[in-house]
Amino acid sequence: MKFKTLAILTILPILFFAACDSKSDKNQKTTINSAEKQFSLNTINNSQINISLNQDKINLKDINNKIVLLNFFTTWCPACKVEISNLVQIQEAYKNDIVVVGILLEEFKTNEEINELLKSYNVNYTVTNSGEAFELAKSLGGIKAIPTTFLIDKHGTFFQKYTGLVPNEMLEIDIKKLLEK
């Protein structure tokens, strides 16, 4: 009986993380509608991130010459919470080269509610809480699963899209490729 319980408890986490499908699709290209689009996302610190999309380029207006990680997440998603911890580590390790931006895909959350979660994870990167996040996600081809993360090079070109929980090792390999360019 104990063996069955132990087996079930061992298999469940494996199935959970496998369901997130963190494998990236190298052949999947992020497509953006051809007309330029502008987005102004409010952050939980009452500032704004201005983003423009044009064909296969993305421009974060106040972020120049840095690699950008855009992470679409929700507060209720267990895989998102694990990824928050990973992104905190990435932001700390590459703070001079990378900007991580968390984009909340959830309605009716107050900044105070979000801050409570972020404080528990010692989040050291910018997080948005804006209705325009849904329009941005749609313009990026839609978000099929959460978390979804986009890795963008210093020139605003999409380098990689990750669906599901991404291991830090995978992110670091791709980040190092971009830093070597």
Q: How helical, in percent, are the residues?
A: 25-40%
Low-confidence stretches: 12-28
CATH superfamily grouping:
Glutaredoxin
- The run of helices and strands is HEEEEHEHEHEEH
CATH class: Alpha Beta
Tell me the structural class: alpha/beta
How many domains would you count in the coordinates?
1
Could you say what the CATH architecture is? 3-Layer(aba) Sandwich
Please state roughly what percent of the residues sit in beta strands, choosing from under 5%, 5-15%, 15-25%, 25-35%, 35-45% or over 45%. 15-25%
Biggest sheet, open or closed, and with what strands and sense?
A: 5 strands, mixed
Strand order, sheet with most strands:
6-5-4-7-8
Mean pLDDT: 84
Q: Give the N-to-C terminal Cα separation.
A: 56 Å
The third-level CATH topology is: Glutaredoxin
Number of helices: 5
Total count of strands:
8
Broad shape? globular
Query: What's the gyration radius in Å?
Result: 17 Å
InterPro entries: AhpC/TSA, Thioredoxin-like_sf, Thioredoxin_CS, Thioredoxin_domain, Thioredoxin_ResA/DsbE_sf
GO molecular function, one term: oxidoreductase activity
Signal peptide: 1-19
Pfam families: AhpC-TSA
